[in-house]
Amino acid sequence: xxxxxxxxxxxEDLTNAFGPSGFEEEVVSAIKKHSExxxxxxxxxxxxxxxxxEEMLKASREKKRSGRPVFMLDAxxxxxxxxxxxxxxxxxxxxxxxxxxxxTNIPAHSVIVRTESGKKIRGITTSKPIHFLTAxxxxxxxxxxxxxxxxxxASSRQEVMEDYGIAVGDPVMPDVRFEYDEEHGICYGxxxxxxxxxxxxxxxxxxxxxxxxxxDVVGAFASQxxxxxxxxxxxxxxVLPDLAIVFEGSPADDFYFRAGIAQCSLKxxxxxxxxxSSYVSSPAFMKYAHExxxxxxxxxQDAVRRGxxxxxxxxxxxxxxxxxxxxxxxxxxxxxxxxxxxxxxxxATVSMAAEVIKNLxxxxxxxxxxxxxx
Length: 374
Fold this sequence. Notes:
Helix 1 packs antiparallel against helix 6. This protein starts with 7 loop residues before the first helix and ends in a 5-residue tail after the last helix. It is globular, with a radius of gyration of 22 Å. The chain has helices at about 10-15, 25-35, 55-60, 135-140, 155-165, 190-210, 230-240, 285-295, 310-315, 345-360, 360-370; strands at about 40, 50, 70-75, 80-85, 95-100, 110-115, 120-125, 150, 170-175, 180, 185-190, 215-220, 245-250, 270-275, 300-305, 325-330, 340. The chain has about 375 residues and is α+β, with helices and mostly antiparallel strands. The chain folds into two domains: about 10-80 and about 190-370, Aminopeptidase (3-Layer(aba) Sandwich); about 80-175, Beta Barrel (Elongation Factor Tu (Ef-tu), domain 3), CATH 2.40.30. A hairpin with a 4-residue loop joins strand 10 and strand 11 (about 185-190). It is built from eleven helices and 17 strands.
């Protein structure tokens, strides 16, 4: 098994945190808890900015720049979840999705509803037992979100509102707790898309503390990615990076494609994404990442995605354009309740990012930025 330097307690606390899109407060607290040696600030949207020194933090508040290139590390802090849309007379909760969740993955799972007061209440996403299904219903595999509700054990709207304290607009997340299988190096939990990216920012920046760098590094934890990369629209304008790495908990495809075709397999290293529906990568950045991987023996796998998207779509179009490298941690069953990933792939992702930044010099930066006359 690969030598792990990442802190698994950080992975546990960040993945366990409550944080559907727009409700990332607990994630912000978990980031703060595990940001030893870093300097943080946040904004009204629950975006968090991390700096390597107090001087950099102060300069960011005063909108001052050192004159050196700014290197942004991005990851989104939200997770897919639900919101209470209505409360039925019988006590069931109507819901809408926060982010992309396939309806067939929703029923018959435990969830947590968080009330305005902060109380967390367990519920079950409804599914009609087979005993009550007609033959036609058993043969019909279609499912609409309007037919899925949450049962918290109540029997009336009044009970839900008065005794449970649940109201329209309350957020909901999957009820899953992190576990680590040390024998096999496998992490189990929820929200690997994209709390693993948040972990990667923290772990990468800690490895850069005290290093002599040619760039100013800023970590940006963006909110509300799952509902339209909204947080990154703010963080990209605030940071105005020259270069960027976007971390993602990328959907593993090793059970859906044969060996040699799969491009996001567990224990095959960090995923270097060349293209998806949101962006086309910088060839110079891809070449540089490959060089770093080979130089330091960091496992990586290349990917060209037909669909999907990340904050790179927003960040790469900021200002005069930002060369952006997307590094993914292969994660099985993202956008469902339960995820698997390999701890060694998190380690490979962090190692790749740290070495990419540490090995930058003026010549390489100019090459990545395509500076000069044509």
